[in-house]
Every structure is written in structure tokens, then in C-alpha cells.
Amino acid sequence: MTKTRDTKPHIGIFGRRNNGKSSLINALTGQETAIVSAIPGTTTDPVKKSLEIPGIGPAVLIDTAGTDDAGELGEKRIARTTEAMKLIDLAVLVMANNQFDEPEKKLAGQFKDQNIPFLIIHNKADEEPLLPSLEKVIREKYQVPVIDFSSLHPSNLETLSRILCDTMPETAYRAKSLVGDLIRKGDVVLLITPIDLEAPEGRMILPQVQVIRDVLDHDGIAVLCKEHEVAEFYRTMHPKPVLAITDSQVFPKADAAIPHETLLTSFSIVLARQKGDFGNYLKGTPHLSNLHDGDKVLILESCTHHVTCDDIGRVKIPRWLTRFSGKKLEFEVVAGLSTIPSPITDYAVVIQCGGCMITRRQIISRLKPAVDAGIPVTNYGMAIAYIHGIYNRAIQPFAKEITR
User: Fold this and answer.
1) What share of the chain is helix, strand, coil (3-state, %, to 5)?
2) Please, are residues 288 and 321 in contact by the beta-carbon 8 Å criterion?
3) What ranges in 85-131 are assigned the alpha helix state H?
4) 242 φ, ψ to 5°?
5) pLDDT for the residue numbered 8
6) Closest CA to 382 of 253, 275, 251, 290
7) Rounded CA gap, 332 and 6, in Å?
């Protein structure tokens, strides 16, 4: 499981082999989504399945291999299961036969360490019901929901769905508005959208579409133009926009064309505030002034895409940052959610893209090792604004959050 392109809430199913994780998936989806067998270790790699959960909406279930797998291959399966924790918003720990021992305690500890909300299901209740004494011990120790359940006879499926809904963090399925708190009804928002080699044929990139929808949802007026049309269009436009949002790579042109009484930021920064680690981006961005010869810069893309000669992450940011710092830097680009090849402490700074193709939880998990190690992290748009000397203007729309 090296990457994902699904922004729906992710629910991971974890537990020992043969505890009925796959049967639980089938019960929740109402179909034979996962292969079920009495042979332990049937599930080898994490398997994903979409479903609708009342109160949450569309979600993704991830069925993982047993955490008690054995042998060299088993260790690799367990490693994949552990990696799956970086993708999820909610964990379900499946136990059975009243066994809550070291494997279960280890999983619960990992969820706690990674701040992953979780619940515990005692499966196969038709064979052996959960002992009230054990349930009491688990509830008191972990302060999480515990439910006795039978995947073969799911009489309390509705109760389980409600518990899933209650335990899922609201931020996982109800995203913060991109610009709704920055505008009022009838406000004009100017969107500067270059059409170049990186623009997809016949359509717009996802962040642009998301911002347009958010402006309309908040009764604003979205106006679009290309970067070389901004100055002339701004002179004739009435009413003037209260906010301009630009593609980060034309930040300098937008800054020159848009009068300073109009707030200006970028699609990448707007997205970073909604679903990135915005607080740590604000702390980390100024460290771009502290780079030295030989420093390694890690650039994280959230998806894989066709690379052009003008690629923003692989070409333009390295070129701009090298010129800005005046140093001989090394750059490493990791696409999707692939494994970072070197220890995180090898890097002087981490630059994360907007993350339009992944969830907020996945971005936070992706950056957590760097944050924990004290490695500065920033975002494409914020880094570009800083390099070009317009950082303070680019984050001005979010002044209230900066001063908190």
C-alpha cells in the first residue's frame, strides 16, 4: 500500500489472523467484498472497499493482514498493515474468543501513539460472547467503545454503524471551508489559472474546481482569467475582487498585477490551510533562509502524474530554491504515499504539495516523522511565496489564525 487517491474517510480493520476481519468487512458492505477462509492468513495485502455509512456518507474500508502473522513473508505483511495506519481516520480493532492479549494491546498502543480514534469489536459472538468482566477492563483502560458482534449473524449492525459514526472524527468527512470564512455574500473572488504544459487537457485541476464550488456555496462570485489578462481585467472589473487566488507558479506576476488593497493567496495555500499541517507550515517556511551547501530537501507529491519539463515540484521549486539560497542543494522527490528512502533526519526541510488527492489525516501522518524530529516542513505555495519575497502578503488572508 504505497499510495492512495481517495479523499473519503478511511477506516482500517486490524486484528489477529482468523478473527473474522474479512467477514466483518462483508457484513458492513452487505456483499462478499473480502475473501473469507478458515485458513489463517488469507488476507495478505491491505484490501480497500468503498461503502456508505449513515451519518458519514461515502467511506473506504481497509482490510489488513493479521498482526500475528509468522515467518519472513508474515513480517512483510505486518509491515504493510502498519503502513496502512498512515492512511486511516478511524481504526477498528477486531478481537475474538475473549482474547485481548499482547497483539491487541500492541495495536491499541499504536493507535494511541498515532492519535488514531478507534473502537473494539469482539467478533464471533455467536460462538463465544464477550465476557462482561473483560469488556469492563478494556473500557476502563482505553476509554473506547467496545461492541459484541457476530459477522455471520449481524443482528446489531445498525448499532455498529452508529458507533462508527460517533467515533469517526468529524474533520474526516466534513472538510473546513476553503474560502467561506474569508468572503461575504456577493463578494467577487478572482481566480488566476494559467493554461500551460501542466494544465490537464480540456479541464481544470482539482483545487481550482474545489475553490470555485466553495465560492459559489458561500454565495460569492467566482471570476477566472489567465495570468497575462489580470492587469487589464482588474482595471475594467467592477466591483473589484475582495480576494484573488492564483496558481503558485505565477505568484510574482499576480503580486505585481493585483493592488495591495486586495487580499492575495494561492490555491496551494488555501488547500494547505484546509487539510495540511498549516501551523507547522507557518513555523517551518522561514527556515528556507537557513539552508547550507549539501543540504537535502525532500519534496512530497500527493499523487503520481505525467512529469513535464516545467514540473512545479521536480523542476521549478528546486530551481527557484537553489537560486534563492545560493547554495548547492540536493533534492529528493517522493510521489504518492511511497516510502521515504532515507531517514527523515537526513533532510534539512520537507516541502509538501497541496495534497488535493489525499486526506488530511494522510498528510498529517506523512509529515509527523519530520515534525517529531524537528525538521521544518512547508507547503508548495508557501515556499514559492517565501522564495519570491511575497510570503507575508500570501498568508495575510489568514491573519486571524496566525495570531492565535
Assistant:
1) 40, 20, 40
2) yes
3) 102-113
4) -85, -15
5) 83
6) 251
7) 24
Angle in degrees, 0-180, between the axes of helices 360-372 and 267-275, rounded to the nearest 10: 80
Neighbours of 396 (CB within 10 A): 14
CA 164 to chain centre: 20
Q: Which residue type is seen at 1?
A: M
Q: Angle, to 10 degrees, between the axis of helix 21-29 and the axis of helix 157-167?
A: 100
d(CA 200, CA 198): 6
Q: Distances in Å between the alpha carbon of 299 and those of 245, 277, 378?
A: 23, 15, 10
Look at the pTM and tell me if it is higher than 0.85.
Answer: no
Query: How far is Cα 249 from Cα 235, in angstroms, rounded to an integer?
Result: 23
Q: How far apart are CA 221 and CA 188, in angstroms?
A: 5
Other C-beta atoms lying within 10 Å of the C-beta of residue 172: 21
Please state, in angstroms and as integers, the Cα–Cα distance from residue 58 to each residue in 8, 48, 215, following that order.
Answer: 6, 13, 23
SS3 call for 325: helix
Please give the domain boundaries of the chain with CATH numbers for all domains: 10-172 (3.40.50.300), 188-271 (3.40.50.11420), 277-387 (3.40.50.11410)
Q: Is the peptide bond before 9 cis (omega within 30 degrees of 0)?
A: no
Where the chain has pLDDT below 70, the residues are 1-7, 31-46, 68-74, 172-175, 196-203, 304-310, 402-404
- Which grid coordinates are listed for 310? 516545467
Q: Give the Cα separation of 77 and 93 in Å (integer).
A: 17
Between the alpha carbon of residue 70 and those of residues 15, 63, 136, 368, 383, the distances in Å are 14, 18, 31, 29, 45
> Is the four-CA dihedral 309, 314, 316, 322 of positive or negative sign?
negative
Backbone φ/ψ region at 58: left (φ over 0), alpha (ψ -120 to 50), beta: beta
CA torsion sign for 334, 336, 341, 342 is positive
Cell numbers 537560486 correspond to 323
Question: pLDDT value at position 352?
Answer: 95
DSSP state of 101: S
Q: Write down the residue that cell numbers 474560502 correspond to.
A: 179
